[in-house]
Amino acid sequence: MYNLSQSVTWKKLKHLAEQTADDRIADAFRDNPNRFDEMSLRLGGLFLDYSKNRVSPEILSSLIQLAEHSPLRQRRAQMFSGDIINVTEKRPVLHTALRNRGEDPVEVNGQDVMPEIRASLEKLKVFSEKVREGQWLGYSGKRIRHVVNIGIGGSDLGPNMVCRALLHHRHPELRFHFVSNVDGQHIHKILKPLNPETTLFIVSTKTFSTQETLLNANSAKTWFLENAPEGDADIAQHFVAVSTNQAAAMEFGIKRENIFEFWAWVGGRYSLWSSIGLPIALSIGYDGFIELLEGAYAMDQHFLHAPLDQNMPVILALIGIWYINFHGAETQAIIPYDQALHQLPAFLQQLDMESNGKSMDADGHPIDYATGPIVWGQTGSNGQHAFFQLLHQGTRFVPIDFIASLKSDEKTAEHHFALLTNMLAQANAFMNGDQDGDAQTHASCPGNRPSNVLLLDEMSPHNLGALIALYEHKVFVQGAIWNINSFDQWGVQLGKRLATEISGNIKRQSTDYDPSTQGLMAIVKHHLPSSKGRKKTVTNISAGKTKAGKA
Ligand code: F6P
Questions:
Q1: Domain total of the chain
Q2: What's 180's DSSP letter?
Q3: What is the pLDDT of residues 212-254, one digit of tens each?
């Protein structure tokens, strides 16, 4: 029976944490001049420096032992081979198959799924090339110029983050918009300047049952039909869907051939490699999308075959476990020194917190140790002027991942130099502080605050794919060692159910709720627009028209 917190290695690590509580990272470099070389890893265009951490060779080897004594190896093999590791939903977990560039079959229920994955990629290729080359025309014969992705969570964050990170690869004639919040201001702001003749909507929803996405999709459809001469007949040219629920997509009014399918064994937060990545293929082109998959595949192979002590995802995961379980770290800061990655923290929030925000293990037993951290972050150098004060002099222990790409275009070389040198300075300051002797003044920075530095040779589709897969596998490794199911998300169902219930009960002043909820419902009820007004709230968005007709 796997009992992590009662294991010999766990107890040894607890002892090591106490024993090394006052050790300084900076001293470790003095004791071992080769520390930087020994505690850095390279994979293709990715370089990881993990030497500024509070780990000694003895601690690292104990952490590796923790991984060896965990279900990690077995669960890793099970994931890649399509076994059912999402035990509560009785599903395989096969985002790795989506980017499998090898010839080996991957079986689900005894059937090789690679042919249907390749077919879905071909469909993505044909469609994205038609739109990009101006062959896919709107109802008035004009090419598509604006793509609006309507989705939330994994149906938004991944493609949104990747399109933003690779903006420099974007098709010059296309603009991309991502609607996710149910707040009508979100869709209103995006639709207002658009012309329905040249707008393509992608309704992205794995289940085709998410309230926010359906409300936004219906508002977009109403807006479109208000302007389209042939009404429903024109929907076909301007609405496509990405979903596992073909029937619901067709009921919404999307033609069967305009539905890009994917599978239940792809988790929402792991789905950008599937047809959920359609906006990515439209933006950077199908070849660029394949490069993204190839980068992730390279990281998959590294994760599968590299020895654990030379394995990037394993090292990142174990250092995280060291801080979470033996140093009380509650959060993990993600600080990209790259404006192109400003949406990466939000993406990693869902990836990590929806995967490992669990308190019951895969066998259904309550957990007696900490699991997934609160993931947060902001780009540098902005963070230096917002929260770095707390990170430098606050009372909390916050491990940091710095991420940057080394290449910039000539026009911004001076800025890029300032950006990178700021990051190096901050990582150095967090480690060394400015302890002049023991004098503690208001200006003193204690230092000994750890960080990882991840450097991408350049922000390419390949390197970005590898970076994303690195974090997917880091989350996987932590989940396997904590023996949790990282692939379900039962915690989000309660809120969804109550939202539907309360919106139904609010009119009848139900007394089924606690006094606070009831009191708030009465206030909201009082401020609800009349039902007529509610109908108009979102859809009275005039299309982007000029006096002489449409833009
Ligand atoms: O947040 C809950 C969740 O189910 C996520 O896992 C998912 O990515 C998101 O909602 C959207 O779900 P769908 O793609 O089915 O609309």
A1: 3
A2: -
A3: 999 999 999 999 999 898 888 899 999 999 999 999 999 999 9
